[in-house]
Write a structure and sequence with these properties.
heterodimer; A: about 425 residues; mainly alpha; two-stranded antiparallel sheet; 2 strands; globular; B: about 500 residues; alpha/beta; Rossmann fold; 3 domains; six-stranded mixed sheet
Chain lengths: ~425, ~500
């Protein structure tokens, strides 16, 4: 052995990773997925089939989109070893600012009324969210104040500012274009020719269905290709049966949900936004160096620093990112309600953080996956929705959600202590 | 006088390492018994066995205390019998008062309500016994290290100590405080308290010890009775280091070329105490193809030197010049140091070297992610190839590159850290205690890697507390003590006695 070969030598082919170890390492992921399916089945039965009605599935997605979107940012924050309690207040604050910019406000010192187009407002709102994230991130990353404290302060500050700004008023309504972020559906061609539903029948949205089917096919195609290539490279892959089973479930879910949505009003715009973001963050966390560095930082900050990771800058970045996503969520919430309210986004931070922990993110940092967090968020969403349909009081809903959170983390800790 | 303590045939193994091998220790009532040996000789492990940190059943052998065999399953058991250890790192709570610390967990209380007047009065008594003039209310954090040591001893007295064990009690004390502490031990002896003292400062031991037991490589070498024979420090040193050198080191023909890396007049202040110099003007250089060792005792400042060079990862107000290939380089951040071809393999692989929650692959590539990525996107297959390659070349024993580093043995963890820095492709590697806590076979493999690196024209700096290791693998050795290089010698002419003598000279000892 020489150093030359250490540095430039050829790879050694070796097989690795037995099926058993794969099971052990990934048990939690599958457990979570199975739990989600079980809870969906449970509520489908006890609500007498209301849960999977097209209208309700549409609602479920609209109600949960902003939780999912913020959970993506929260994933990076928590994996990086921090927490952000301020996201709910940022939702309210950015939504309020956006509303005022769109509805129009008076600038006293030049004495003119300003009213901005909604497209510009969207851009400004995302920037505002980023700036809020940056200001909090600065104190956390560079002044080394614990994130819990900084964002607790942020939570109070921005909630208070929202209240002051809106003076207890609802500010709205907004332009159709802005509303369509939340209330809109992808354009469809189905009301022409033979696709047009007969009079008296609800229209079926064929393009939405098509998108779902194509999505499912793409999903199967890409994952099969990856699985085969990984297998050829002797990388650790899922056992064949598991791989087939998982993809079948995903494909059925995708097609099934697009059918349900297509039979209602088609795919909501916000679902597309959410889908794109999920793909983007999956890519960032699994394939990009920056994602890898965030995980390393959360896993062992000192070791990461000594490996040349700029931990301060990276921490700042996770908070800027969180701020932008919270700003986006603020826009979605405002668009959905068609007004900004002082209480918009109240206690969202708890739903978002709970989604992360149910989704298997480690509170001490370094561990967590996008898919887990998304499933965690839908877990919360299905419970909210199902219990609401059943007419369970909001307070009992909180009790149940709290117990589920505790149970999920308990299972995690228990598994870890056994491993 | 009968022995108060007898430890017979103590053997303690850790996975892959035999820390203690059939060690015998006999301490008589009312004596001051010193234990010495190099770092890693097993002194601390022996004391941990004695105090129950390693419970009965996790070691072989017998502990007889006050005529009875004792099976301690935790520290409380040994403390209950009056065996009290004062560790090198003091175990005081900084923001509590002296009285609160002394009675921590042992508070004079009725129904959970602490009787502070009793606590204060007893604290005053104890403080006067150890000669510390401080109010029982004073906070620990406001006391100097010497006084904190006395509080620890007062705490031991509060527990009705029979056998007091001091692990390197004077390591961080100045001379006045050390003398005071040693006088205290002699006083205790008159009161019938037996003490065991572990220390590197042989001159101190010579002053107060009745007997000295020397450990080496986890085995008892001998017990010297200081009252019967007049001992010299040279005699102890020989006993400490005199081990046989066999072919524990792979052969190497050094091909040393031009100067590669140097630091000049390197000065570093303590990160928390501004103005307290930890590194006091060090000049160091390493040539292409050369392996340079830095010898010294714990606390000599070797790690601090290395980490301050590596992107100022330690200390503040770092001054001095760093030169690579004759040109001054900027090493003010870790990123710049790495970019300029410096790698530092930490002595503390678990907390500073590895991300234990991640697998081998992710750890190997962490310091050089651009090397496997294109525009920030990682090429997974390239990464797997690289990881696989280092895994087989460094013989990392694991189920695969996807195994979590948490589950690897010490030697294999060390190889993962080494892989990480080899993949960063440095010109100069600073290896800090590269073989600490790993078994002989893995050590040999690490030495081979070091040889290969030198043969490939890199400069290698090895920090080690194991002197035979430095003598076995280095071309040149710096001896460091108290933040300075006190000596420099070619390894082929050096002996362990010479190195020890260079260090001891600082403490005013003329070694034989």
């Amino acid at each position: 052995m020489s150093t030359e070969t250490i540095i430039t030598g050829v790879p050694a082919a070796e097989t690795s990773g037995a099926d058993a170890s794969f099971w052990k390492n990934n048990l939690r992921d599958y457990g979570l997925l199975v739990s989600l399916l079980l809870i969906m089945a449970f509520f489908e039965v006890v609500t007498g089939g209301v849960l999977f009605r097209g209208v309700n599935v549409t609602n479920l997605i609209l109600q949960n989109s902003y939780i999912v979107i913020m959970a993506l940012g929260m994933l990076l924050v928590i994996v990086g070893g921090n927490i952000d309690l301020s996201v709910g207040s940022i939702v309210g604050f950015v939504g309020g600012c956006a509303a005022i910019m769109m509805v129009g406000f008076h600038v006293p010192w030049v004495d003119i009324d300003v009213k901005l187009p909604w497209q510009l407002v969207i851009v400004l709102s995302l920037i505002l969210g980023g700036l809020i994230g940056a200001s909090q991130g600065y104190f956390i990353a560079y002044s080394k104040i614990p994130a819990f404290i900084v964002t607790l302060a942020g939570m109070l500050i921005f909630r208070g500012l929202t209240g002051n700004m809106l003076q207890g008023q609802f500010v709205g309504p907004f332009a159709k274009g802005f509303q369509s972020i939340s209330a809109g559906f992808i354009p469809d061609f189905s009301d022409v020719g033979f696709l047009k539903a007969p009079p008296g029948q609800p229209q079926f949205f064929w393009l939405s269905m098509l998108v779902g089917v194509v999505g499912a096919i793409l999903l199967i195609y890409t994952s099969t290709r990856r699985w085969m290539r990984d297998n050829a490279q002797a990388m650790e892959t899922e056992p064949f049966a598991l791989f087939i089973g998982k993809n079948a479930i995903f494909a059925i879910l995708t097609v099934g949900f697009s059918y349900l949505l297509a039979s209602n009003k088609g795919l909501p715009n916000v679902l597309i936004v959410m889908g794109v973001l999920i793909l983007l963050y999956t890519f960032v966390t699994t394939r990009m160096t920056i994602g890898r560095r965030i995980y390393a930082m959360g896993g062992n900050r000192l070791a990461a620093q000594l490996s040349g990771v700029r931990t301060e800058r990276l921490t700042l970045l996770t908070f800027v990112n969180m701020g932008v996503l919270a700003g986006l969520a603020g826009l979605i919430v405002a668009a959905r309600l068609n007004s900004a309210t002082p209480s918009a986004g109240n206690s969202f931070e708890l739903d978002v953080i709970a989604a992360c922990f149910i989704g298997g993110v480690s509170a001490s940092g370094g561990v967590g996956k996008v898919m887990g967090v998304v499933i965690g968020a839908f877990f919360m969403g299905v419970m909210n929705n199902g219990m609401s349909i059943l007419g369970i009081g909001i307070f009992w809903q909180q009790v149940v959600k709290g117990l589920v959170l505790l149970a999920a983390v308990y299972v995690d800790v228990y598994q870890k202590s056994k491993a | 006088m009968t022995p108060i303590l007898e430890m017979r045939g103590i053997t303690k193994t850790f996975p892959g390492v035999i820390a203690l091998r059939d060690v015998n220790l006999s301490v008589r009532e009312g004596e001051i018994h010193a234990i010495c040996g190099e770092n890693g000789a097993g002194k601390s492990t022996l004391m941990k066995v004695l105090s129950g940190v390693y419970p009965y059943g996790s070691y072989e052998g017998q502990i007889v205390f006050q005529g009875q065999e004792r099976l301690f399953s935790r520290i409380a058991d040994s403390e209950h019998l009056g065996i009290i250890i004062i560790h090198q790192e003091l175990a005081l709570v900084p923001l509590l008062s002296i009285a609160e610390n002394i009675f921590l967990g042992n508070e004079p209380a009725k129904m959970g309500v602490i009787d502070w007047s009793v606590a204060f009065n007893r604290t005053r008594e104890l403080l006067s016994k150890v000669g510390l003039k401080e109010s029982p209310n004073a906070l620990i954090t406001n006391l100097g290290i010497g006084k904190q040591q006395l509080v620890e001893i007062a705490k031991a007295l509060a527990k009705k100590v029979k056998l007091l064990i001091l692990d390197e009690p004077t390591a961080s004390l100045n001379e006045t405080d050390s003398d005071a502490l040693l006088r205290l031990l002699v006083e205790f002896k008159a009161q019938g308290i037996t003490s065991i003292i572990i220390s590197h400062k042989l001159n101190e031991l010579a002053k107060v010890a009745d007997k000295i037991t020397v450990l080496r490589d986890g085995a008892t070498v001998e017990t010297i009775d200081c009252r019967r024979e007049k001992i010299s420090e040279g005699r102890i040193i020989k006993s400490m280091v005199g081990r046989e050198m066999s072919d524990r080191y792979p052969l190497r023909v050094p091909k040393i070329a031009e100067r590669l890396f140097a630091v000049e007049n390197w000065r570093v202040e303590h990160p928390l105490h501004a103005g307290r110099e930890v590194i006091k003007g060090v000049d160091l250089h390493v040539n292409r193809g050369e392996v340079v060792g830095i010898a010294g005792l714990m606390g000599a400042g070797r790690t601090e030197l290395a980490m301050s060079i590596f992107g100022r990862a330690y200390g503040r107000n770092v001054t001095g010049r760093a030169l690579m290939e004759g040109k001054e380089i900027d090493v003010s951040t870790v990123q710049k140091a790495v970019a300029n071809g410096i790698a530092y393999v930490t002595e503390d692989r678990k907390s500073l070297g590895l991300v234990l929650s991640e697998d081998i692959k992710n750890n190997v590539t962490l310091a050089n992610l651009p090397g496997i990525a294109w525009r920030g996107v990682i090429d997974k297959h390239q990464e797997n190839r690289i990881a696989q390659q280092y895994r087989s070349l460094l013989k990392i024993r694991s189920s695969g590159i996807f195994q979590k580093t948490l589950n690897l043995s010490g030697g294999n963890q060390q190889k993962v850290v080494l892989s990480k820095w080899l993949f960063a492709q440095p010109k100069v590697l600073i290896l800090d205690e590269p073989t600490r806590g790993i078994d002989v076979g893995a050590k040999y493999e690490i030495y081979t890697i070091i040889n290969d690196l030198a043969a490939a024209g890199k400069g290698v700096i090895v920090i080690s507390s194991e002197m035979p290791e430095l003598l076995g693998i280095c071309d040149r050795i710096y001896v460091m003590n108290e933040g300075k290089f006190v000596d420099e010698m070619p390894a082929k002419d050096a002996t362990q006695e010479m190195i020890m003598a260079s260090i001891m000279r600082q403490y005013g000892v003329a070694a034989a």
